[in-house]
Amino acid sequence: MLTPTTRRRLYLILLLPVLIGLSLLMSLALRAADPARAADWQTARNDSSHQAPDPATTQEAVLQVYAARAFSWRGVFGVHTWFAVKPAGADHYLRLEVMGWGVRYGQPAVRISRYTPDAYWFGSRPRILLELRGARASRLIADVMRAAAQYPYPDSYRIWPGPNSNTFTAYLGRQVPELGLELPAIAIGKDYLTNGDFLANAPSGTGKQISLYGLAGLTVAVEEGVELNILGLTLGLDLFPPALKLPGIGRLGAGM
Fold first, then answer.
1. Looking at the domain assignment, is residue 145 inside a domain?
2. What mean pLDDT comes out for the span 96-123?
3. Could you report the per-residue pLDDT of 3-58, keeping only the tens digit for each?
4. Residue 132 belongs to a domain
5. Could you tell me whether strands 94-98 and 110-113 are parallel, antiparallel, or unpaired per DSSP bridges?
6. Mean pLDDT throughout 117-144?
7. Where are the beta strands (DSSP E) in 87-198?
8. Number of Cβ atoms within 10 Å of the Cβ of 161
9. Which end of the chain has a smaller Cβ tally under 10 Å, C or N?
C-alpha cells in the first residue's frame, strides 16, 4: 500500500507530462491562429520591425538582443535569438547569430553580417530582450565580439537539443555576465552547455545551472528563477516578477 508521501510524488510525476502536453497543444492552437504566421519561407515577411535606432541619426553605441518565433512547426516550441550591435559612430549594425541553413554544405554556423538588425523572422515580429546604449554598450560590444570569436561550435548546428542559435546567444551571455541576459524559457538550446560541461553559470550570470547535454537539468538564478529542463522543454517559476514558465507558451505572468 502506498504511503501518502509516495502517492503525492507519483501524482507529481504523472502531472508533468500532462502539463507539458497541454502547454504544447495550447501553443499549437495559438500558432495556428496567428495571422502573421508564414506558410512559405520565400514570401514570409523579413523587413525591419523599426525597433533598432537609426544609425544615421544615432551616434552612440547600441547593443540589442532579439527573439522571434521560429519558422514553421518549430515556432510551436520555441524562438530564434540573435544579437545586433552598433559601435559608437558606426553607420551600420552587425548582426550576430547562428543559423543551420547551409552548414551541411560547408557554410559556417556563426553568421556575422550587416543584415537588418530588427528584421521580422519569417513573418514573426521580434521582441527586444535587452537594449543597452552609450559607453556601457560600447564596452560590452567589444566583449561580445570577442566571445563570438571563441564560440566552440562555429561550424556546427543541431536543432535539438543543441548547439543551435539559442546555444550561441546563451554562450555569449555566460561569457559576458555584465549583460544580465535572461533568455525566454522557450529558447530551446539555451541549456546546452558547451564543451561537455555539466555545471555553468546561468545565461544571466545571476545563478547556476546543471545540464545533461541540454536534455535534462535545473537552473536556479535571480533573473531566471527556478527552471526545470525536461528534454529541452522548460517548466519554471519566476518570483521577480512572479510568473510561470511553460513549454511552448513561455512566460505567463508579469514581465517578458
1. yes
2. 96
3. 777 767 776 777 778 888 888 888 888 777 776 666 667 788 999 999 999 999 99
4. yes
5. antiparallel
6. 97
7. 94-98, 110-113, 127-133
8. 20
9. N
